[in-house]
Design goal:
This protein has about 575 residues and is α/β, with parallel strands linked by helices. Helix content is about 30%, strand content about 20%. The protein has 14 helices and 26 strands. The chain has helices at about 5-10, 45-60, 105-135, 245-255, 270-275, 305-315, 325-345, 345-350, 350-365, 375-385, 415-425, 435-440, 470-480, 510-520, and strands at about 20, 25-30, 140, 155-165, 185-190, 200-205, 210, 215, 225, 230-235, 260-265, 280-285, 290, 295-300, 300-305, 365-370, 395, 400, 410, 460-465, 485-490, 500-505, 525-530, 530-535, 540-545, 570. A hairpin with a 6-residue loop joins strand 5 and strand 6. Helix 5 (about 270-275) crosses helix 6 (about 305-315) and helix 5 (about 270-275) runs antiparallel to helix 9 (about 350-365). The radius of gyration is 43 Å and the shape is globular.
Length: about 575
């Protein structure tokens, strides 16, 4: 290292390391105050700076030849290097200082540092709040009753359950004292594959049905099968005999034939906190209501309700309609329609305060299946559901008839089956332009064209996954009621099929179209290929009844619209409760 570099390393200016010896007239290198190379000499007035000025004067007097280098010193003494211009002493003996940083640069540096800190703090706070919301969520196992989770590329089915369990502050006066809770309010929400529409199907709590065996995860992690029960109210599928929401899910699937992706269970607090979070829900009454059992007292007209009053509204039934559960369902559908409109309004979506309150209320009041027991998955599900326009959301009620006891109801299969079939086939209850256009494009050419007479249809029937006895029942129905006499039943198919299929030789296309019309088969069930020969050696179509087959005379093609007299409410329509 040269002397200049060494000086910098020791924190000493290089110019201060060369000292003029007045006795010899030479410069000598001083490494430290105790260095042997230092020659003590009396200091000139003015100190070290004055010595340097004297040295420069001597160099100037020595002439041009000596001007470029310091005087010679002892052998081996390094030559002095010229200091950089910035290091040259000034006329006052001080070195020039570095230029000061511009004020705007300092401001920029401080602003950038502050912004980085703010962003870091915000990210940390966001993460902590994310974890906070996660910790709010309660999740339980679906015990294999669901599909395993929703997908963005298919329809979504979610079971929404309102329980009457008396948990939470201020709820001691509601529900059954000491009860584990029931499925007091149940809605099966179906969201179409293309997210253009949705159907919210209410299942009456007092509807008599069979509850299946329900494998149930216990608190210690073990599994126990809760035995099924016949002829029970639907609301007993939750809470009673140790049944969990997964059992309500199995029961709803058994009734409708719809596989469900997830469930969400809300308690009384959900109605109170969610209605308050959006600043109240608008409702309309066609008459005064004074129900001492639900504690609701409201005058005829429009109201904005929240909290305890909102809970009383969705629970009242004795002062509206016929005073039963079906009348209460209509009130709940009106309330939920209004809540949906409020949730999707700009007034809510542009208010950070309301959105935070909704996040808190939603995560605290819900119990969900473990497939959506994470705030990220719950958000993704909410995003998919939120794509549906409110005008294409229809609330409907499962068709029922009164039971002989006057307190319960029974499923009206004649009206309910077409409705369930529409939901399974992802058919909207409202007219959706986009969906109607796609349907016209998908019309199958295989169903168009001439048809033969029923008596000309030759077909062999196989059971490929339908209920036992389906093939023989279908044969009897075709021969006795439809005139398809050239038909036979040949037992089970070589392998099961998920969907019913009709395979035929292209020359039998007219027969295939006729049979499809009789049985209500969709164009997708027709498979041009190779026929088989019957006992007479004639080409014969092969009909395989798949797992989707519901029974003889029940069409597989969903109806184009639901029965006209089913109870339903469109979410964008404002109605007054009667």
């Amino acid at each position: 290292m040269d002397t200049q570099g060494r000086g910098r390393a020791d924190g000493i200016d290089p110019a201060d390391q060369w000292v003029l010896n007045p006795h010899t007239g030479d410069y000598e290198l001083r490494l430290s105050p105790s260095s042997e190379q230092r020659v003590p000499s009396p200091r000139r007035p003015g100190g070290r700076a004055a010595n340097r000025r004297a040295a420069r004067a001597q160099n100037a007097d020595s002439g041009p030849a000596a001007a470029g280098a310091p005087p010679s010193g002892p052998p081996g003494t390094p030559r002095r290097r010229r200091a950089a211009p910035a290091e040259e002493p000034t006329s006052t003996g001080r070195r020039k200082q570095k230029p000061k940083m511009a004020r705007w640069k300092k401001v920029l540096i401080w602003t950038g540092g502050t912004m980085a800190f703010v962003l870091f703090a915000a990210a940390a706070a966001g993460y902590l709040y994310y974890q906070h919301l996660n910790n709010n969520i309660t999740s339980v196992s679906d015990d294999g009753a669901g599909t395993g989770g929703f997908s963005k590329d298919r329809a979504i089915n979610v079971l929404l359950i309102g329980t009457d369990k008396r948990t939470g502050k201020g709820n001691a006066g509601y529900g059954d004292n000491g009860s584990a809770g029931h499925a007091d309010t149940t809605i099966l929400l179906h969201v179409s594959k293309d997210r253009t529409n949705a159907t919210a199907l209410s299942i009456p709590r007092d509807m008599i049905t069979d509850i299946p065996d329900c494998p149930t995860t216990q608190e210690d992690g073990s599994s126990k099968v809760i035995p099924g029960s016949q002829g029970k109210r639907f609301n007993e599928s939750l809470g009673q005999s140790g049944r969990t929401p997964s059992c309500a899910m199995r029961t709803a699937t058994q009734i409708t034939g719809i596989r469900i992706d997830h469930f969400m269970v809300a308690d009384f607090n959900a109605v109170k906190t969610l209605s308050s979070a959006v600043g109240g829900v608008d409702i309309c009454l066609a008459k005064d209501i004074d129900d001492p059992k639900s504690h609701l007292k409201l005058d005829k007209g429009k109201h904005t309700i929240e909290g305890e009053e909102a809970l009383a509204f969705v629970r009242t039934r004795h002062s509206v309609g016929f005073g039963g559960d079906l009348s209460r369902i209509e009130l709940q559908q009106q309330f939920l329609s209004s809540l949906m409109r409020k949730l999707k309004s700009n007034d809510t979506l542009t208010s950070p305060r309301k959105m935070f309150k909704l996040a808190e209320a939603g995560t605290k009041a819900l119990t969900v299946d473990d497939g959506i027991g994470d705030i990220g998955k719950l958000r993704d599900l909410g995003t998919e559901i939120g794509k549906v326009d409110t005008k294409n959301l229809t609330f409907a009620t499962t068709p029922v008839v009164d039971n002989t006891d006057g307190a319960t109801v029974l499923l009206n299969e004649a009206k309910a089956d077409p409705l369930f079939q529409m939901m399974r086939a992802d058919v909207s209850l409202t007219e959706v332009k986009k969906q109607e256009k796609e349907k016209k494009k998908e019309q199958d050419a295989r169903l168009k064209g001439p048809q033969s007479e029923a008596s000309e249809v030759r077909v062999d029937i196989y059971n490929g996954g339908a209920k036992a006895g389906s093939a023989s029942k279908t044969l009897s129905w075709l021969q006795l009621e439809q005139g398809v006499l050239k038909s036979s039943q040949l037992g089970n198919a070589p392998k099961p099929l998920a969907k019913t299929q009709l395979e035929y030789d292209p020359d039998q296309a007219d027969q295939a179209r006729k049979l499809a019309e009789i049985m209500g088969l969709p164009g997708s069930a027709l498979k041009p290929g190779k026929s088989e020969e019957n006992a007479q050696g004639l080409p014969t179509m092969k009909l395989t009844l798949g797992k989707d087959f519901k029974g003889a005379g029940i069409p597989l093609v969903p109806p184009k619209k639901a029965p006209d007299d089913i109870q339903r409410v469109e979410a964008d329509k404002k109605m007054c409760a009667k």
